[in-house]
Amino acid sequence: MVMHSRLTSTLADGTLSDLAARHPFGRYCEDHALPSAAARDQVAVAARQFLAAPGALAIEAIDPDGRPAGVLLFRPSPWDTDHFGYPCVSVDSALIAAEEYAPRRAVAETLVTGLTDWLASHGARFTSVRVPARDLPVVHALESAGFSFIEAWAFLHRPTSGLGAAAEPLTLRPARPADRSVMHACAVGAFDTQRFHADARVDRARADALYTRWIDTSFTDPAMTTLVHEHDGKAVAFMTYFPSDLSATLGRRFAMWKMALIDPALRGQGLGTRFFEALARHHRDEGLDIIDSGVSLRNVASINLHARCGFRLTSTLLTFHRWSDARA
Length: 328
Ligand SMILES: CC(C)(COP(=O)(O)OP(=O)(O)OC[C@H]1O[C@@H](n2cnc3c(N)ncnc32)[C@H](O)[C@@H]1OP(=O)(O)O)[C@@H](O)C(=O)NCCC(=O)NCCS
Hints:
- The structure is a single chain.
- Helix 4 crosses helix 5 (136-144) and helix 6 runs antiparallel to helix 8 (204-220).
- The protein has helices at residues 13-20, 36-52, 78-84, 101-121, 136-144, 179-187, 195-198, 204-220, 247-250, 271-285, 300-308; strands spanning 4-8, 57-62, 68-76, 88-96, 126-132, 148-159, 173-174, 225-231, 234-246, 252-262, 290-296, 312-323.
- A 12-stranded mixed β-sheet has the order 1-2-3-4-5-12-6-11-10-9-8-7, with helices on both faces.
- By secondary structure, it is an alpha+beta fold.
- Bound molecules: coenzyme A.
- The site of coenzyme A (COA) has 20 residues, from strand 10, helix 10 and helix 11.
């Protein structure tokens, strides 16, 4: 009897808990400041939440004894499909029980084959996945199934405690509707280092428009907040984020940074540094303990800015894209 896989939209609760309990990688499990059992609980919670969302699916690998050997979570992406005009799929994560390279690779191959079979039978054109850089068996299984490397990605974090006195703290205010067009203007060319611009198969104008759309969404999504700093009566620095309360599993409340933007005319003059410091104070005062940020390693300016502002690396991920119509 060999390992086989099945497609499902529901998994036994124990399956996710057991696989998450052995999962060693990713933002929470690689963070040495977090208790590892709690970090793994959080992996299970996040996987359950992902599967509960509309359209979410799982490939489950079953070992020869009939036990779950791994799962791969994915879903068609309505947002990207609508924006780019062709069927797009997004892979969330892979949880695998085996730890050694060879058995882990065998499970990863089974999961990825289950995924590519589904992609072919459902006419998916574009698939993206971010996988922890340390999970080489999964990385290699993706490569052998035609996924191409696009970028390395870093999760960075800093606590909001221990802030010294600021000489002249920058003032912050919530964004107003009139800020939307100012953000659009500041965003021109600002995200050329991101993954959609890195992929030559993605239409350049569509990649640019993605950021315009994200900015628009940040003004309409009630979960998102954008904070703004004004200089000489003009909005010049923007941060979009949302709070994530993980007190139940990790005992901490996070500020999840989604988009930082400085007026192009003022970049490289220390404004980003002072803005990040002011944001840290704001998050502390609103009761958030940790700032979580994520940056493509292609964005050297942002990586350096985070390093200067006391952020530490928690884990690195690798982004892969797969096109169903690409030549091998
Ligand atoms: C990334 C960004 C926020 C930096 O803001 P900024 O006001 O220019 O940053 P600062 O002037 O405070 O510089 C802080 C540190 O960043 C680094 N940095 C800034 N610009 C840099 C550049 N062009 N190349 C390399 N490092 C750079 C430097 O290390 C600098 O510190 P140092 O001068 O002591 O070495 C700004 O360039 C920006 O808005 N970029 C476009 C949007 C973006 O990339 N957002 C982040 C990802 S969502």
